[in-house]
Structures are given as structure tokens and as C-alpha cells.
């Protein structure tokens, strides 16, 4: 197996962890978790069995990721983000299968956000701090609030896009058509 770092106070039960991943103190990783390369899993995190995490993912402190989460590559999950996996929970009553929550490549979730089970957060989407995500989030969109609402489009570089669908920071241009939000190749 590849080499990864686990702090002496972390509990790492999984053997499916990619090279150069760092797992810090008081993190608990259950046996069936799959974690990619070059991830950073901060202190006081818990990751349940039926979870897949891609490469280059940052998971900040205080995040608990429950069965059914699928996290793509280059995803940022801010401190104390809360995931759910059962929209009608009862003590000692379990669904036959937990709902899947999908975080597509390059999306970012701000601190203290809550992600309701069964939703997909699209590629390069950004969720503002403290938001409650109750619906699917399209690619390259910015959402925040409780419940989270659409606030605009976001460039792949992370900056908000102006009314002409241009990023003033990096110069990328975008367009919307019937298939969604597209970067214009110049």
C-alpha cells in the first residue's frame, strides 16, 4: 500500500488510502473508506464506511462524513460542514440504503454549511458559509443562505462572474445554452 501520514492520535482503520494523504489528530477513518492521493484530513473528523474521497481533497476540522457520500477530486470542505444521509432518521431504525450525496470535482463548501442527503453539488460550484443545501447545485454556480439560493455564476478560478459571463480576475469567458453553463475556449 502507498505511504500516507496518520497522526499518532488518529484512528485509521482503512487500508485504502492514497499516497501523500495526511490524517491529523483525533480523526477516525472506518475500515471501508476509500481516500485518494494527496488529501488533507484535519483534526476531529469522522468518516463512515460507505464513503469515497477523490484526490487532492481538503477536509477541515470538525467534519463528519456519513455513509453514502461520494466526494470527487480537488474538493474543499470547510470546517464544521455537516452532512446528512437519512432525511427521516429514527433511533435504531435504518433504511435499506442511505441516500447518496455527490460532491463533484473542484466544488467548495463553506464553513458550517449543512448538506441535506441525496443532493449533488456540481463541478466548480461554491457554497457560502453557513448555508443549508436542500437541492441539487449546478456546475459553476454560487449559492448561499438558509435555504441556500442561487446568487450567481462562479469561474473555475473561484471568482464571481460578471453580467457578461466574464471573469474579471482570470479573463475566462462563459456562455449558457440548453446543456448548461460552458466555458468558452479562446
Question: Please, could you describe this protein's structure?
Answer:
With 186 residues, the protein is mostly beta strands. Helix content is 0%, strand content 33%. The strands form five sheets. The chain has a nine-stranded mixed beta sheet with strand order 1-4-7-10-13-16-19-21-22, with no helix packed on it. A six-stranded parallel beta sheet has the order 3-6-9-12-15-18, with no helix packed on it. The chain has a four-stranded parallel beta sheet with strand order 2-5-8-11, with no helix packed on it. Strand 23 (173-177) and strand 24 form a beta hairpin. It is globular, with a radius of gyration of 17 Å. The mean pLDDT is 95.
SSE order and pairing:
Blueprint: E1 5-6, E2 11-12, E3 16-17, E4 22-23, E5 28-29, E6 34-35, E7 40-41, E8 46-47, E9 52-53, E10 58-59, E11 64-65, E12 69-71, E13 76-77, E14 82-83, E15 101-103, E16 108-109, E17 114-115, E18 120-121, E19 126-127, E20 132-133, E21 141-144, E22 149-153, E23 173-177, E24 180-184
Parallel strand pairs: 1-4, 2-5, 3-6, 4-7, 5-8, 6-9, 7-10, 8-11, 9-12, 10-13, 12-15, 13-16, 14-17, 15-18, 16-19, 17-20, 19-21
Antiparallel strand pairs: 21-22, 23-24
Structural class: mainly beta
Strand content: 25-35%
| Apparent shape | globular
Q: Between the first and last Cα atoms, what is the distance in angstroms?
A: 42 Å
Biggest β-sheet strands, sense, barrel? 9 strands, mixed
H/E element sequence: EEEEEEEEEEEEEEEEEEEEEEEE
Total DSSP helices: 0
Low-confidence parts: none
Helix content: under 10%
Tell me the Rg in angstroms.
17 Å
Q: Kindly state the number of beta strands.
A: 24
Mean pLDDT: 95
**Taking strands numbered 1, 2, ... along the chain, how are they ordered across the largest sheet?**
1-4-7-10-13-16-19-21-22
